[in-house]
Every structure is written in C-alpha cells, then in structure tokens.
Design brief:
Length: 308
Amino acid sequence: MEPFLKVEDLKKTFKQTQVLKGISFEVQKGEIMAILGPNGAGKSTTIRNIMGIMYPDEGNITFQGKKEIPRNKIGYLPEERGLYKNVKVMDILLYLAELKDYPIKQAKERALYYLKKFGLEGKDKASVEELSKGMGQKVQFIASILHEPEFLILDEPFSGLDPVSQDLFKQEIRNLAANGTAILLSSHQMNLVEEMCDRLFLIHRGQKVIYGTMDNVKKEYANFKCTIKGKNRLEDVEGLPDVQRVEQSNEATILYLAKDVNVASWIKHLPESLEINELSIDRISLHEIFIDIATDKNMLREEAEANA
Ligand SMILES: Nc1ncnc2c1ncn2[C@@H]1O[C@H](COP(=O)(O)OP(=O)(O)OP(=O)(O)O)[C@@H](O)[C@H]1O
C-alpha cells in the first residue's frame, strides 16, 4: 500500500549546525506513528518541513506520491498553542474549517459534537480568552480534526492535559486511526506512546536511532532486567554472567541483562548467597530505552551507526 507520507533523506542545516542528517520514514493510512527524540533532536524541524513551514536543504517529502502538500487533507496541532483571543470558539472553528474548504453545516455539527465529547458543551459561544489552557488545547485539537483530515500531525498533544482529558484524546486519536487516518504523533510521554503507537521513529542528534513497530522495538531493544529486593553488595552481583549494568538504590538492585539471554537458565544460576526478598523480571520500557539513548548509556548507538 502506498504510504500517505513519505520522507526521504531529509537534511536541514541552521547556520553551521546540521540539525537533520538524512531522515527517512513513512506514515501509512490508519497507523499511529510516533516521532520521538530528546529535546533539540529535530522533531519539530522535521514536522515544519513536512508542513511546508520551512524547506529542507535536501531530501524529498511526498504525500500519496505527490510533492504538493494536500493542505485540505491535513490536520495539524502545532507545538505552539494559541488561537485568536477575542473570537468566539465556534467562529474560530468554522473559520478554520472554511479555510480547508469543508462544508460549514457539517463543520458546525461536528464542532458541537466534539465540544460536547470533550466536556465543553455550551462553550461554543465563549470567547477563546475565557478558556483555561486545557480547554484551549481541546478546542485547538478539535480544529485540527474538524475537516476529517486523512493525515493528522499532533505535536505534543497531551502536554498540560489532566488524566481524564488525556484519556479522551487517546480514545479519539485511536478512533481516527481505526477510521483510516494516518497519524504522526510527537510526544515525550513514553507510557502513552508505548500504549498507543503502532510504529515509532526515534531521532537523536538529527539521525535515526530506532525505526520499527512497537513490538519489534521491544523485542529488539528492550532487554530484560531483573529487580531483586534484598541487601546485596554491588560486588556480589556485578560479576554475574550476562549482566551488562547494575543499578542499586536502598535495598533494591536492578540487573540489566544482555540481549538474547535465556532468562529461565539465567535465574537457575543465581548464587544461593544472594538475599532475595522479592524478584521480578521485566522487559525494559520504552521510557528506559529512551533514557539510555538520550544519555548515551546505551548499547544501541553502535548498532544505529552501523545501520545508518
Ligand atoms: N529556526 C531555527 N533557527 C536556528 N536553529 C533552529 C531553528 N529551529 C530549530 N533550531 C535548532 O534545531 C535543533 C532541533 O530543534 P527542534 O525544535 O526540531 O527539536 P525538537 O526535537 O522538536 O525538540 P523539543 O523536544 O525540545 O521540542 C535545535 O538545536 C534548535 O536549536
């Protein structure tokens, strides 16, 4: 199937600094694709190039095979929030829908539906400046989906939302993907990304570090870790086979295990001298994979560089 968005070898330099060093990825219809990376990694620059807010020095961006940006088919929630202040909520929503050539009657019906869904019933007549930050964000989210976009870019959609509103956004984003919308989502909330996204693309210093389905990323990068509660000395655990890294706090020791370790056999060979009050084996989370990469602790860098 032809992807909705195809980004090929995107390069961008600001002054002397190359911020994007050849970024390539695709977003398919009906999938939620995460674009991740530490602050300053180049996510927003990538998104701005896709949206035509700035132009790449090199590389290709195509939408359903074409270079022209199909603006009416795209919804965009930018990182910078802000709507005109002295305008009524419904007026701004209808104005933005009109810019996308979306039928006004349908836009009004959809606006009322979504305002109600997001707990903003009756706010259609309020002016934007009367809204709280979270309410404003909901209105801006509604504006980005009102015209039924085929491709939706969400830059940090969850920031500043309370947990109930986060759940509403999550549910709606999933609904949109289930109905065929291609979604590119940038977020620093790894638990939400892990829960929601089908695939992810992780950039560090303007380069691809990870690109794949959530399942494959977990299999490939999320090594096991063993958490032992009990008083144990660092020197008694450090030298254990297949232990790559040890972290200790209070009375817990976390042993990060090598890839491809046979967990059952590894447990069998733990020394009897260890004090074990509790023991658990888990795969490391996306949050931990991210921290490893962002702090350059990880073993992935070499692999990424080899694959670059
Ligand atoms: N218009 C600009 N002029 C000069 N440098 C820029 C410009 N826009 C971004 N940069 C630089 O490009 C790099 C990437 O910035 P970008 O905003 O894309 O990062 P990001 O991954 O979105 O970060 P964050 O998670 O903090 O939002 C940063 O070093 C930033 O200072």
